[in-house]
Fold this sequence. Notes:
- The radius of gyration is 20 Å and the shape is globular.
- It has nine helices and twelve strands.
- The chain folds into two domains: about 5-75, Glucose Oxidase, domain 1; about 85-285, Class I glutamine amidotransferase (GATase) domain (Rossmann fold, 3-Layer(aba) Sandwich), CATH 3.40.50.880.
- It is about 30% helix and about 25% strand.
- The protein has helices at about 25-30, 40-50, 65-75, 85-90, 110-120, 135-140, 160-165, 180-185, 275-285, and strands spanning about 5-10, 35-40, 95, 100-105, 125-130, 145, 175, 190-205, 215-225, 235-240, 245-250, 255-260.
- By secondary structure, the chain is an alpha/beta fold.
- The protein has a ten-stranded mixed beta sheet, sandwiched between helices. The protein has a two-stranded parallel ribbon with strand order 1-2.
Amino acid sequence: RSYVCGFVVHEECTQPSNWRASYRLADFLAKEGVVGLSGIDTRALTRHLRNFGTMRGVISTLEEDPLALVEKARRSPHLSGQELVPEVATREIYVLEGSGPRVVLIDLGAKLNIIRHLQKRNCEVVVVPPKATPQEILSLGPEGVLLSNGPGDPVDVPYTIAATKELIGRVPVFGICLGHQVIALALGAKTYKMKFGHRGANHPVKDLVSGKVYITSHNHGFSVDEESLKGLPVFVSHRNLNDQTVEGIRHRYLPVFSVQYHPEAAPGTNDAEYLFDEFLAVMRRERR
Length: 288
């Protein structure tokens, strides 16, 4: 299923040649009920967004008056304030068997590759909805909890923030992307909407603990406010070398850590896969 409302591309491929292709892009969009637009100078559009920040937009096949369309875009809702996570997350608890440690994955819109990485390490994965309570999660007997990626403003999942606040200190917690922001909010920090988010698979991030620099995959429009971390028992563990924003935090005393980028990214980059191994090491250490 596609969750996009519109699709814009410079050039549409009308005759795909890949041996795995069974239909055209236009066929897929039509099946999903998504409006598509081709023939756009996407580089010029990107430069415009880089100069003026993320903007609301509209694509229409009915209205032709530009002023009316601009007004319609202005009336469309902002990203903040929308409850997007429940639309893309599981509604039921389900279990994926494994011979290793039991991990509860709080699904905020989790990428399948997060599950693949956990299963690759023999974890038993219990996927729960975003509104699962701390009591429900702890009753599953997890050796660790992973908060997934997901869409929207992190303040719009107050139930997950509240649950995370109660889980911290009782079980190892690892967060990715939106999960990272939720952990920061649960610890008392703040987040903010970036002028333009980080997109793409070539962002240099420095691990401030090891001193190594990794090329990482990003897809986020919000970030943790570093000033709000002052006085909290956490430190910045990773930093973006392009704009110096916070890319990871770690608790000073408890088994809690998170990253803003995607260590599970598919098809890559694969530089940050080591974080899943760190999560397993933390769970083993806490088990003793």
